[in-house]
# Entry
Amino acid sequence: MKHLTGLSGISPATITGILDKAALHKDLFLHAENEIPRTLQGKRIVLAFFENSTRTRFSFEIAARNLGASTLNFSASSSSVSKGESIVDTIKNLEAMQVDAFVIRHPSSGSAEQISRITDKHVINAGDGTHEHPTQALLDIFTLRDYFGSLQDTRIMILGDILHSRVARSNIFGLTALGANVGVCSPVSLLPADIASLGVRIFTGIDDAIRWADAAIVLRLQLERTTGGYLPSLEDYSLHFGLTDERLEKIRKHMLVLHPGPINREIEISSNVADRIQPPGYSKSVLLEQVTNGVAVRTAVLEMLFTKTET
# Structure
């Protein structure tokens, strides 16, 4: 595996290998007395973010530096892209500076795959349009596996804007590969037309989805959707699809709650549900644990891409 542009078609063995290596790196990362092997010493990794990001960019930067690599931060707004340079020319010019890998965040679907075809350097997709966000899904899956032990036959519900979510797609591919049962819950207007072909269970009512699920991955509602004609209003969405204490208590269902962030409090998720990190209660939030796990997973991905092709 020279690139990681998506989880579609990735084997269960490869996903499991990444998760196992991430578990080792998490242990190293959390204990200051441990020395992390500098397996990427001397490598240069470009963080080419054509969209804004906080968690993803910083966790890749920490992951790269943990392994001894240096990072070059690219911002489209302050680059030649703002003067009309194409993405192909941008990548070729950066490649000529003798860099070793590209971490790509781009608003256009398929951009990471396109870049992987024009460079012999490693390419990691950090989110492209509405296509995929593989490392976010891998950290979600890592968090779920850490909690449940095995994902075989677990019931994972993805709640929110499935239509526009690259996180949802990558999670569906990765979770089903590892034997989980995946359900999606969303207003009909925010469900892809081909969603049934992905082998998921479809819920259009949140109460039924909660009764079914062992865990929920809550997606950020992109607030512009209300003005795009997809939803009547934010209030209507929150009323019918917001994950709240009241809903969980009514059904009396314990549920693990994840969210890729950033969260819109009191819209797709209530503050109580988002912040509850300890039982008792009808949910447990692992939102901050996901952030920690993101560093471990991205460290594992970087190390595996380099070592798999250079040994």
